[in-house]
């Protein structure tokens, strides 16, 4: 049990999402979106100021200290 808890804590990353500090277990951007409840949402994403297209999210690995922006389209006029 102690090994399992240590492994989970060890794999946690400190990141920022939309300027809010938090931790995550995700290894890539697609997993992070699922972890945070955005799996079916239409959103734009960026890491450290660089746009990440939807087709690249699974291949975009997360690192300690990354700054992620998740932006939903706005409607109105």
TrEMBL record:
<dbReference type="InterPro" id="IPR003749">
    <property type="entry name" value="ThiS/MoaD-like"/>
</dbReference>
<dbReference type="InterPro" id="IPR010035">
    <property type="entry name" value="Thi_S"/>
</dbReference>
<dbReference type="Pfam" id="PF02597">
    <property type="entry name" value="ThiS"/>
</dbReference>
<dbReference type="InterPro" id="IPR016155">
    <property type="entry name" value="Mopterin_synth/thiamin_S_b"/>
</dbReference>
<dbReference type="InterPro" id="IPR012675">
    <property type="entry name" value="Beta-grasp_dom_sf"/>
</dbReference>
<protein>
    <recommendedName>
        <fullName>Thiamine biosynthesis protein ThiS</fullName>
    </recommendedName>
</protein>
């Amino acid at each position: 049990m102690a090994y399992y808890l240590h492994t989970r804590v060890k794999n946690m990353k400190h990141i920022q999402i939309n300027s809010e500090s938090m931790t995550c277990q995700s290894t890539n951007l697609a997993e992070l979106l699922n972890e945070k409840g955005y799996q079916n949402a239409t959103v734009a994403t960026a890491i450290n100021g660089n746009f990440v297209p939807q087709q690249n999210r699974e291949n975009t690995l997360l690192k300690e200290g990354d700054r992620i922006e998740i932006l939903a389209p706005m409607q109105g006029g």
